[in-house]
Amino acid sequence: MTLNPPNLRPDLAPKLKIADVARPGQPTIGMVSLGCPKALVDSERILTRLRAEGYAISPDYSGADAVIVNTCGFLDSAKAESLEAIGEAIAQNGKVVVTGCLGAEPEYITGAHPKVLAVTGPHQYEQVLDAVHAAVPPSPNPFIDLLPAQQVSLTPRHYSYLKISEGCNHKCKFCIIPDMRGRLVSRPAFAVVKEAERLVAAGVKELLVISQDTSAYGVDLKHAEERGHRAHITNLARDLGSLGAWVRLHYVYPYPHVRDLIPLMTEGLVLPYLDIPFQHAHPDTLRRMARPAAAAKTLDEIAAWRSICPEIVLRSTFIVGYPGETEAEFETLLDWLDEAQLDRVGCFQYEDVKGARSNALPDHVAPEVKQERWERFMEKAQAISEAKLATKVGTRMEVLVDEVDEDGATCRTKGDAPQIDGNLFIDEGFEGLKPGDLVTVEVEEAGEYDLWGARV
After folding, report:
1. Are residues 222 and 207 in the same domain?
2. Is the pTM of this model over 0.90?
3. d(CA 291, CA 177)
4. Which of 172, 233, 336, 405 could be 217's S-S partner, Cβ–Cβ 3.0 to 4.6 Å?
5. Which residues belong to the annotated binding site?
6. Residue 454 near residue 409, CB atoms below 8 Å
7. Which residue numbers belong to the known binding site for [4Fe-4S] cluster?
């Protein structure tokens, strides 16, 4: 069991869970998946197709005939991590296909690693498959493979990410995701629900709904209804909530219609949890970011959500040290955080990213100032988290078991997403528990980010 300190990269997906065993002579493909949960879903789709064509899947380089590296290009530090992973794969394996967000800059990759076999952009599944076929021809067993593909899951069996759209229509100056992944393209609602039904039937207990802008879902489809399902986030959330699994909403922009989701939480259809990327609170900083500059109005929205659903848990991410951020602007952010009392908070230090319009802004903040502000921000966020968790002591709640080892069971409450939020630990009476179990506990102890409890 491990405690849950704040993460410098609160956007990261969980580590891969791969348990394939290749049969003799079966071609094997390794996968390295970097970046966010949306990239993890892309990796799952690629591997699902490959498995149906007769390939086995390897979690490392050495046992594979070729390796796919699914890259991240969100920050320059993420780009450096991607280049390092590509270089390691080339050194360890030799046959490397690169895909993902950084693949939108092929010259950047081939300039550093000219030996890669192919470079494809994000969600270009067919091109990835073509590159793999060229490097390692498929050798399917007609009695085992060439069947309808069963979804490859890179997460534990009891939870799964459910991507409902690609791309984004926002033009935030610090972000190049729309340049890499394009404008919003929503999946038809009936297709999302069908995938969710299949996941729940396979034993998934929690659906984590993700996209670049979840609350804009269906805008490009004009919220059309098809096969009994309307492409609007409120309708989709209600449809998903009817399946009996936990439904957790990520990356929700605070549009006015988000308030229509809150009653679904009081009805128990959707978890009382919203992941909303506020990014900052000072109106001038938000304007320089090219984001809505109505932090005071956002506080009113938060108060309205809590009045409807008092148990709602709010998670957000922020950027400190954005170009032009003054000490007064940063102090406004701290004051706003005091008033907002968000439950779960992550924070980035601003980084230039090639192609982002924010690079050209004047008055960049010195690295040591960014670090100092990050520390002050996280100190305040930690104090808020600790105080809020202390109020849970003595209460009873339902938790989902993630892992069980000799020391105890690691669980999550309805207010905790995997990897990025806290845990609830059961260190006595955990015998017989297994991942995916839902159990009721009484909270006995609280820390800065985690809880401890006993089964009831």
Report:
1. yes
2. no
3. 15
4. 233
5. 36, 72, 101, 168, 172, 175
6. no
7. 36, 72, 101, 168, 172, 175
